[in-house]
Automatic annotation (TrEMBL):
Keywords: Membrane, Transmembrane, Transmembrane helix. It holds the Pfam family N_methyl. The keyword Transmembrane applies. This is Type IV pilus assembly protein PilV. PROSITE patterns: PROKAR_NTER_METHYL (PS00409). It comes from Marinospirillum celere. The chain crosses the membrane at residues 12-33.
Amino acid sequence: MKLATGREQGFSLIEILVASFVITFGLVGMVLMQTYSQQDAFRAHQLSLSGLYAQDMQERLRANLCYLSGLETDSEVESFLVDQLDDWRADHALSQRGWVSGIEALTQVADFEGEDGESYWRFELEIQPPQPTRSATIQTLLIDYREGGCES
């Protein structure tokens, strides 16, 4: 029987524990990085959807400019906006999917930039994704029109 002379080969228990700790720490970091990446991708997707929904609402309002320009009181404008918002929500099934939204007419400014008969409406559209921890996206919609182009 031979006795071990000199230094034995292999790894000690401490070296194995340190190596496993380093590997575990690295793997946990990679998993967390992947999770945050997926959350950011989902948030970006929701922002893109918010932009598309806002663009659709802007086109709906632009399509009804002549009707909108003929409204005289704030209550008529508010009633029109509520109807448009209800149709818009129904078409995109926003309420069923948990999205919260609202629209408000902020101003109607006439004759800007010195052009005769040119006016614009400014609306604020708020869209909030289904998860309440996310902040709402507020889109300001500017819709210009020429009063002379609308026939009564």
